[in-house]
Amino acid sequence: MIKNQLFNVRKDIPDSVTLVAVSKTKPISVLKEVYDLGERIFGENKVRELVEKHEALPKDIKWHLIGHLQSNKVKYIAPFVAMIHSIDSLKLLKEINKQALKNNRVIDCLLQFHIAEEDSKFGLTLLSAKELLESSEFSEMRNISIVGLMGMATFTKNEEQVREEFRTLENYFHVIQSHFFKFNPSFEHISMGMSGDYKMAIEEGSTMVRIGSYIFGTR
Ligand SMILES: *Cc1c(COP(=O)(O)O)cnc(C)c1O
Questions:
Q1: Ligand 1: which of 113, 210, 211, 214 to mutate, most ligand atoms within 8 Å of CB?
Q2: CA distance 77 to 59
Q3: Ligand 1 in contact with 201 (CB < 6 A)?
Q4: CATH second-level architecture of 2-216?
């Protein structure tokens, strides 16, 4: 079952798009099954669950933190996390930089943008992102690398709205890239698209899809 779903997803995704298998709430045994099918990138939205799964599973897994992150929890994941998708403030980025330095690492991060109409979704605006990237504090950070943007579309059946929100994020990517990362090839990712909308996200320029329930079943 999971095997078929994973193969279906892989078939839908071009080689240039990275799959993050979102394994939140699923038990270790199920992650191991997907690991044995070759998947090496897993996404979790809670720090404690991420740490427990990292401890229990093979160490060649790349763990992505995709959910909201509180500054006081960064220290638990800084030793191993491969990417953090949810940067929504300078304060959080400063803490990640500090903890990465302690671990002698450079941590890949995505700036999370607010593209949905719901107020509940976290994220930056184009203005607040520019302020962050123009700050002297940001320019001094050596232990984080901004590798792109992330966003979540509104949870709606209105496909045109979702597509419009993906287009907005893709447009922000180019604006931010041309202003701040013109000569930095590491700035390359647009993390958008989940189980219900990943095909559309890829059509609109996604380079990284975060897929949970379509692979693992409903939570
Ligand atoms: C849970 C989650 C996903 C995956 O959602 P599905 O609809 O299960 O594919 C993707 N991104 C974030 C930020 C999530 O919290």
A1: 210
A2: 14
A3: no
A4: Alpha-Beta Barrel (3.20)
How many residues appear in the chain?
219
Longest dimension (CA), the chain: 51
- Closest C-alpha to ligand 1, atom 11: 210
Arithmetic mean of pLDDT, 193-202: 97
CA–CA separation, 194 and 214 (whole Å): 9
CB-ligand 1 contact for 211 (6 Å cutoff): yes
Closest by CA to 152, choosing from 99, 70, 85, is: 85
Is the CB of residue 66 below 6 angstroms from any atom belonging to ligand 1? yes
Which residue ranges make up each domain of the chain? 2-216
Q: pTM to 2 decimals?
A: 0.97
